[in-house]
Specification:
Layout (H helix, E strand, L loop, with lengths): L1 E2 L5 E2 L6 H19 L1 H18 L1 H4 L31 H37 L1 H15 L3 H12 L3 H11 L2 H15 L2 H8 L4 H9 L4 H24 L11 H6 L1 H4 L6 H28 L8
Antiparallel strand pairs: 1-2
């Protein structure tokens, strides 16, 4: 306490602005976890997966590509937490490094697919006319094929590689965000603030990217979170078929198709560990995407 000019004891001011700034995100995370516990579990799994991918050299001490046939088919132990495969390679290291491939291909494929589809939807919804007609027919053609079949066809024609894997995934994911964003833009285009911006002489680019796009970001974010699980599953499927990441790079799908399939009856752990990793990753992104949709979509708030 301090004595003021009139002799009154006054409590000194405390600067809480800095602490409040840091505590606000923590409060938001805690509120989200209380409201959507399943989504919080999914987010926790995603965070652990990202940490494992980033810190793979520190977490996985064994070289995932090192072959030692004398150490083949070892059971789980303190030296090899998940055991070893038919070439004596450490399965734990291969699972950890495989998360890098899954996240890299999934994130790049989702960014390209959702970003490209959103841009197409934005242009079609705003301009309409012949541009809308042509681009939507292209989207219809893409959507006519099952996603995995289309990705297999693209990679099969060009050749399997990491780059072609995420490009193929991006093409298969482009249709849904294009349609969703187009519908949202058609609604936003008729709002009073867009009409006011047009009357004030704002350019089409300014109206689209300054006034319309920020108001349709919520469905784009939700689509991206839900699509990531699909992208990881498609990447695993391509690797399983030999059309994705090529050996000796560790990938969850190729682990299932190689030793996991050949030795399943005698040593099923070779298939169980990568299968569980794929399932957990897809499950986590689906849980998180569902929770994010409920939070960001005003029509669903309070529905669950």
């Amino acid at each position: 306490m301090q004595q003021g000019d009139l002799g009154i004891l006054v409590e000194p001011r405390r600067d809480t602005g800095g602490s409040a700034l840091y505590l606000a995100p923590l409060r938001a995370i805690a509120s989200f976890a209380r409201a959507k516990p399943l989504a919080a579990i999914g987010a926790l799994i995603i965070v652990l997966m990202v940490v494992a991918a980033v810190a793979a050299p520190a977490i996985a001490r064994q070289d995932p590509a090192r072959i030692n046939t004398r150490a083949a088919f070892l059971p789980p132990s303190t030296a090899h937490w998940f055991g070893t495969d038919n070439y004596g390679r450490d399965m734990f290291s291969r699972i950890i490094y495989g998360s890098r491939v899954a996240l890299e291909v999934g994130l790049l494929g989702t960014l390209l697919g959702v970003g490209g589809g959103s841009l197409i939807g934005l242009l079609c919804g705003y301009f309409g006319g012949r541009l809308d007609l042509v681009l939507m027919r292209v989207i219809d053609a893409v959507q006519a094929f099952p996603g995995l079949i289309l990705a297999m066809a693209i990679v099969g024609v060009v050749g399997p590689s990491l780059t072609m894997a995420f490009i193929a995934i991006a093409i298969t994911l482009i249709a849904r965000p294009a349609r969703v964003v187009r519908g949202s833009v058609l609604s936003a285009k008729a709002t009073p603030w867009v009409e006011s911006a047009r009357l004030l002489g704002a350019s089409d680019a300014r109206i689209m990217f300054r006034h319309i796009l920020p108001n349709v970001l919520a469905p784009i974010i939700v689509l991206a979170s839900l699509t990531l699980g699909i992208a990881i599953l498609v990447e695993a499927s391509l690797s399983f078929l030999g059309l994705g990441v090529q050996p000796p790079t560790p990938a969850w799908g190729s682990m299932l198709s190689g030793a996991g399939a050949n030795y399943f009856s005698t040593y099923p752990l070779l298939a169980i560990f990568p299968g569980v990793a794929i399932s957990l990753a897809v499950f986590a992104f689906n849980l998180f995407g569902d929770g994010l949709r409920d939070v960001l979509d005003p029509r669903l708030r309070g529905a669950r």
